[in-house]
Design a protein that fits this description.
By secondary structure, this protein is α/β, with parallel strands linked by helices. It contains four helices and eight strands, in the order αβββαβαβαβββ. The longest helix has 22 residues.
Length: 175
């Protein structure tokens, strides 16, 4: 029986260590915090001049009186784009009547595949009031991305049309 005592002592120590770890883990507040950068007065992200999915030129002044959330993404994005647009739609719903004062604006970084029809259908899945903007040339996309300090890059896939897009995932909020 003398060999059983060290084993029991080891088991008791492990149980005590595990219990202490579980108890102490509740002492720390690891909630994620909201992180933002105030760009008021900055020399970037001031405005855009892009056609919407109907071909109408749009700028921030078209949404005067509303809180505008601008997000750059693409419709075949597997994660952050649909998540962001869904969260924005949920916020709009939670605001009730005040939700009408929130305008979602989605700027595609993949105008090659994101046709006007594709963009309308995509945003319709989240909120029909959201506006899609589609640069009409690679130069217009590059200039807009530069003006907003947005990173984007096509990442080749197995075929010419199966590529993905790396891109910034932040939102610009204007009031």
């Amino acid at each position: 029986m003398p060999t059983l005592r060290p084993f029991l002592r080891l088991c008791a120590s492990l149980v005590l260590l595990l219990a202490s770890t579980v108890l102490l883990s509740g002492c720390f507040d690891n909630k994620p915090s909201f992180v933002s950068i105030d760009v008021t007065g900055a020399d970037y992200a001031r405005d855009f001049q892009l056609p919407d999915a109907d071909g109408r030129e749009r700028s921030l002044k078209d949404f005067a009186g509303k809180v505008v959330v601008v997000f750059f993404g693409y419709t075949q994005c597997p994660d952050v784009c649909p998540t962001t647009m869904n969260e924005l739609a949920e916020i709009r719903k939670l605001l009730g009547k005040d939700g009408d004062r929130l305008q979602g604006v989605f700027v595609t970084v993949d105008p090659q595949r994101d046709t006007p029809e594709v963009l309308k259908a995509y945003l319709g899945n989240f909120d029909p009031s959201f506006v899609a903007l589609r640069p009409t040339s690679p130069e217009q996309l590059a200039a807009t991305a530069k003006a907003f300090k947005i990173y984007y890059k096509q990442v080749e896939g197995r075929t010419d049309t199966s590529y993905t897009m790396d891109h910034s995932a932040g939102s610009y909020v204007y009031d």
